[in-house]
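Q: Structure for this?
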Amino acid sequence: GESVGLHLPTLSVQEGDNSIINCAYSNSASDYFIWYKQESGKGPQFIIDIRSNMDKRQGQRVTVLLNKTVKHLSLQIAATQPGDSAVYFCAENGPDDKIIFGKGTRLHILP
Amino acid sequence: DSGVTQTPKHLITATGQRVTLRCSPRSGDLSVYWYQQSLDQGLQFLIQYYNGEERAKGNILERFSAQQFPDLHSELNLSSLELGDSALYFCASSATGGPYEQYFGPGTRLTVT
């Protein structure tokens, strides 16, 4: 597959450890946030979302935290596995329903 | 497999030309979104259609246009192509007009030479 974002920040995590990927969003009026996972050669895949009236949401092995005070979003992946290796994007639903994606973080799993 | 299909998978064309990219959303989804992904710009939202009507507009150039047909498939037309238009173009669909839980297609790789 083709690499996306060759110059993205990279987070290297030991297999089995927890991963935390951070994202700063741009607009305080954004009301909905999503995390996507993109594997090499594939389209982005929805992981988890959160609305602005919440500060935490849990899924299967993933948790999203939202801090509106500092416009910060994080994705926590528990017990990181080799299959979690991908580029992770946060996205916000901004004014006029324009969707704004972050630059992405590459997650690299160490054996 | 997300259920969203895009054709063609690859497209190579020359500057100044016009191309059409096609997207079929997941069965039952009413919204279609188009995105451009390049190495230097990341993922850029272009435009959204909901049940045939334009709903939201992002960073779409005037040389680009889109439409959604009664059967809900969508086409993205790119004209007067420039080298900088070379990118991956993704289509995504969602059940409603909101941006919630979008399902992305495999993308069309456009190369402008």
